[in-house]
Structures are given as C-alpha cells and as structure tokens.
Amino acid sequence: MSEFLSVKKVQSFSPIREEEAARVIQTINSSAGASAPINFRAMVNSLLTTFLSRAAFGAYQPEISSLVTKSIGVLDGIDIADMFPSFKPLHFISGLKATLVKMHEQIDVILDKIVKENQSNEGGENVVKFLLRVQQSSTLETPIAIHNVKASMWVSISAIVLLKLYNTFKFLATSSKPIRH
Q1: Which terms does the record give in the GO molecular function aspect (predicted)?
Q2: What is the structure's pLDDT at 178?
C-alpha cells in the first residue's frame, strides 16, 4: 500500500485534479454572466466526488453514488426486526432484508462492471488497477480474492459518500440561518 501512496503515485493523479478543477472553473465562468447565485458548496462537493471516483475507479460512477445514498436512507431508520432479532418472521414482514439484498445485488453488478473495465482498460493507474495488480502478483502471504477487491471498492465508495455527508452537516452546523422544512 505504501507503493500506492508514494509521492510519485499521488502526483500521477494531478491530471485528474486539474481536469476537474478546470471543469469547475468553466462552470463558474459560464455562470458569471447569469444573475443567479452560484452554489459553490455543491460545486466543491461535485469536484471532490468526481475526483475521488475517477482516482479510485478510473471513471466517474454516478449510479454508485445514488445507490449508496439510497442505502444510507434505508439504514437510517429503526426496524422492528432489530428490536427482536431472534424472531425471524419479522425480518420478512419488515421487508428491510429483501431491500438490502436487492441493493447488494445491484451494487455487486456495478462493482463487477468496474473491475472488468479496469481489467481490460489500459488507462492510468487507479485504486482498482493497483489492487488487481497486487492480486495477480501473488507475492502476498494471504492472496487477495476478487471479493476483497470489491470490498475495498465499497469502502472507497462509502468514504466518498461520508465525505459528502460530513460537508453537508458541517455546513448545517455553521450556517447562521435556521433550518426550515
């Protein structure tokens, strides 16, 4: 992992940073003539999400962001089956387990697609290509399976969404305006 976090590797992501920053600057320039205010927080959020997604997976994956946001929405409530975990019929009645299984299958399909794209694509280095290369090198004591690669991808995706949530809560906490429904 120290190989992936080396100065040289981090600097290799500078073209992605520069492209995304140029996109934001272009958006600001095109919006400058309009009388509508610019939502700078949303632009920075988009910049971070797109950059991290491209650096981690090689391309921006908007469907992943929406699925993770949806999964957070599903998990933020209290489920009756959580109160009585040994009473198995509640798991079927609440429908939460079926919803989570369906979402897991959708996410797994997307992650498989990303892995296949990175296996066949000769583009620049990213987290997925690095993990696939380590998996193929077989120099590790414990081999890395493809499900380990996908689990690492899921952690990266979750970090991106948590960063978005953190920025939103930070904005709400520092905002002097009252929150209205």
Answers
A1: heme binding; iron ion binding; monooxygenase activity; oxidoreductase activity, acting on paired donors, with incorporation or reduction of molecular oxygen
A2: 59
